[in-house]
């Protein structure tokens, strides 16, 4: 398996690794990863196949770089929202689980908008290679941490307790991920507006009923 974090190779004039990666992601989305060859990529860029290898070692490395771009910032946001300092009985203080969950969902919208092509590709991964399996494992970790945060917000009494936390976490991320189906980068609706809309619709419906 090629390490996606491998140092970038020296590129040819007029192209760099990011330009190659952007075109590769577009092709992977349009044609499918398995159906896209390095020859396809070379033709799309107007380069020879040998020139592509001045930028990356393999097609698998390109996939790894793309999936890491989709997952890295979201992973950081989840880690911040579920840090051990917030665990019950740890003596930590700060935002409630409900507040951290709401911020995390908004942040996930911002990450999706910033990396929409890569997230679109991530959502089509089926585990057909070691790189894809690793990405799916990271997605499962994110799902589990989000469910834990939902559970903590329920225990605080901030969220309704009649829906399973695991189901809530899947529905929340399902709402966020559905943006790739219609949102257009650079369109009229920006990330801040989307984040506000998603969190308002989701959390006002999830809020625990007021007693009485």
UniProtKB/TrEMBL annotation:
<dbReference type="GO" id="GO:0003700">
    <property type="term" value="F:DNA-binding transcription factor activity"/>
</dbReference>
<dbReference type="InterPro" id="IPR001647">
    <property type="entry name" value="HTH_TetR"/>
</dbReference>
<dbReference type="InterPro" id="IPR041490">
    <property type="entry name" value="KstR2_TetR_C"/>
</dbReference>
<keyword id="KW-0238">DNA-binding</keyword>
<feature type="domain" description="HTH tetR-type">
    <location>
        <begin position="14"/>
        <end position="74"/>
    </location>
</feature>
<dbReference type="InterPro" id="IPR009057">
    <property type="entry name" value="Homeodomain-like_sf"/>
</dbReference>
<dbReference type="GO" id="GO:0000976">
    <property type="term" value="F:transcription cis-regulatory region binding"/>
</dbReference>
<keyword id="KW-0805">Transcription regulation</keyword>
<protein>
    <submittedName>
        <fullName>HTH-type transcriptional repressor KstR2</fullName>
    </submittedName>
</protein>
<keyword id="KW-0804">Transcription</keyword>
<dbReference type="InterPro" id="IPR050109">
    <property type="entry name" value="HTH-type_TetR-like_transc_reg"/>
</dbReference>
<dbReference type="Pfam" id="PF00440">
    <property type="entry name" value="TetR_N"/>
</dbReference>
<dbReference type="InterPro" id="IPR036271">
    <property type="entry name" value="Tet_transcr_reg_TetR-rel_C_sf"/>
</dbReference>
<dbReference type="Pfam" id="PF17932">
    <property type="entry name" value="TetR_C_24"/>
</dbReference>
<feature type="DNA-binding region" description="H-T-H motif">
    <location>
        <begin position="37"/>
        <end position="56"/>
    </location>
</feature>
């Amino acid at each position: 398996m090629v390490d996606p974090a491998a140092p970038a190779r020296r590129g040819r004039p007029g192209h760099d690794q990011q330009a190659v990666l952007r075109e590769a992601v577009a092709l992977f989305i349009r044609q499918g990863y398995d159906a896209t060859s390095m020859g396809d990529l070379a033709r799309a860029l107007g380069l020879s196949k040998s020139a592509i290898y001045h930028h990356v070692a393999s097609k698998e490395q390109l996939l790894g770089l793309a999936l890491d771009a989709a997952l890295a910032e979201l992973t950081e946001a989840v880690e911040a929202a579920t840090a051990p300092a917030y665990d019950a009985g740890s003596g930590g203080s700060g935002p409630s689980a409900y507040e951290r969950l709401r911020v995390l969902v908004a942040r996930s919208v911002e990450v999706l908008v910033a990396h929409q092509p890569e997230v679109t590709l991530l959502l089509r991964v089926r585990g057909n290679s070691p790189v894809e399996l690793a990405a799916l494992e990271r997605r499962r970790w994110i799902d589990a941490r989000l469910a834990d945060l939902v559970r903590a917000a329920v225990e605080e009494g901030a969220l309704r307790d009649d829906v399973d936390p695991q189901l809530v976490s899947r529905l929340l991320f399902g709402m966020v991920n559905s943006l790739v189906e219609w949102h257009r980068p650079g369109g009229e609706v920006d990330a801040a507006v989307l984040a506000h809309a998603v969190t308002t619709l989701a959390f006002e419906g999830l809020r625990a009923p007021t007693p009485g």
